[in-house]
Amino acid sequence: MISPLTERFGRYGGDLLTARTQPHTDLVIQARDAYRLGDWETAYAAFCRAGAIGPLTVDDQDAMATAAWRLGHDREAVRIAELVHARLARTDPNAAAVKSVDLAQAWLLRGDVNMGRNWLSRARRLLPGDGPAAGRLTYLEAVVAVLTEDADALADRAAALRELADRADESAPAAPNLLALLSADDDHRQLENRLLALSRVLEEAHPRAAGETYYQLGEIRRLRGDSEGAATAYARARQLQTEPQPGEALLRFAVGDREAAWADLLATLNTLDRRRRARVLRGAVEIALARDDLAAAERYCDELDAGAEDWRGAVLVRRGRHAEALTALQAALQRHRARRSAYEAARVYGWMAAAHRGVGAHHLAAADEAAAAQLYRRLGIQVARGHGTR
């Protein structure tokens, strides 16, 4: 029988009794080093083993939650983050307030608007009126207002964002995965309308934040086949100081301006630091695969972190390494399904179909293709091209 503790940590805990043969301090150092390098799997495994021996500091526990999230272990990441919040609430109320915002965002990304709203309320009670966390809190409150179609709350949060923007020259509030946030109730057909509503409100209230929403609006229009609407949204994002890559390059590539799109994307990559390259790198891998430039696809894929199993699997499919590809793609599918990322899951199903055909499992390939088609129909978007075939 599997013990609850072993079941919780899975393969990362392994035989937790063996952790006692390695000193707690050594494991923590190993975990911290891996975390700094972005090696989330090693970091998470070492933190799990260290935690089985003795207590972790609050910073280490917070890093463990981040590593878990990066690996797609969303439920465990939220559980650990809530423990971090409880510790911070006793010692550092300001840090606890910031962690409340993090948890609100995590619950919204998991599709639980009510839990997200509860954590936003906690943060609002604790957080001072100024600073980056206040901007992110207000931004997320605006997102919830859009999700719940609360026009009065949206107008109020827009006014609050405008006041924050007027008070200081702040950068856009950091709220990653906007598409996932706004599709949190799984009603994907409303996503474009929600993005448009939020973009218009933010354009007046906080132009820099609006730039990202216009970029995401361009993304959903591109995926739905509205090339003209996507180009308009990307252009508006650029006007609002948001880099519209890789979406703009993917759009140009899709409409036939292939070489110019590739050149523009590479030029953009050369201007970005490591933190800002991740989104553009995914587009670079996608276009490289479509150009049959497998060496470039592998090179850019190697720069991506542990959350890029889908693109690694795609490259392996094109290399003919189908069994290896399936391992990576199944991990990616688990992650996307846990996060309810329907488009990404559909794309992975397409690559899995090609991999299953490659190993002779044609019945599984047919099932994968059917699953992908069902998701694309539900989303109302065009079928992605290049899933292992030309």
On the 0-100 scale, what is the average pLDDT?
85
Gross geometry: globular
**What's the count of strands?**
0
Biggest sheet features: none
Count of individual helical segments = 21
Rg calc: 22 Å
**Low-pLDDT regions:** 1-19, 386-390
**What class would the helix/strand composition place it in?**
mainly alpha
Binned strand content: under 5%
Q: Which bin fits the share of residues in helices? A: over 70%
* H/E series: HHHHHHHHHHHHHHHHHHHHH
Quote the distance from N terminus to C terminus: 48 Å
What can you see in these coordinates?
There is one protein chain. The protein is mainly alpha-helical and 390 residues long. Among the domains are: 1-91, no CATH class; 257-305; 311-381. Helix content is 75%, strand content 0%. The chain is built from 21 helices and no strands. Helix 2 runs antiparallel to helix 3, helix 6 runs parallel beside helix 8 (132-147) and helix 14 runs antiparallel to helix 15 (258-269). The longest helix is centred in the first third of the chain and has 18 residues, at 74-91. The protein is globular, with a radius of gyration of 22 Å. The N and C termini lie far apart (48 Å).
Short summary of the structure?
The protein has 21 helices and no strands. 48% of the residues are buried. The protein is mostly helical.
Task: Describe the structure using short key phrases.
390 residues, mainly alpha, 21 helices, disordered N terminus
Write the layout of secondary structure elements.
Blueprint: H1 4-13, H2 24-36, H3 40-53, H4 58-70, H5 74-91, H6 93-109, H7 113-126, H8 132-147, H9 151-167, H10 178-182, H11 191-205, H12 207-223, H13 227-239, H14 247-254, H15 258-269, H16 274-290, H17 294-303, H18 309-318, H19 322-338, H20 342-358, H21 362-379
Helix pairs in contact: 1-3, 2-3, 3-4, 4-5, 5-6, 6-7, 6-8, 7-8, 8-9, 9-11, 11-12, 12-13, 14-15, 14-16, 15-16, 16-17, 16-18, 17-18, 18-19, 18-20, 19-20, 20-21
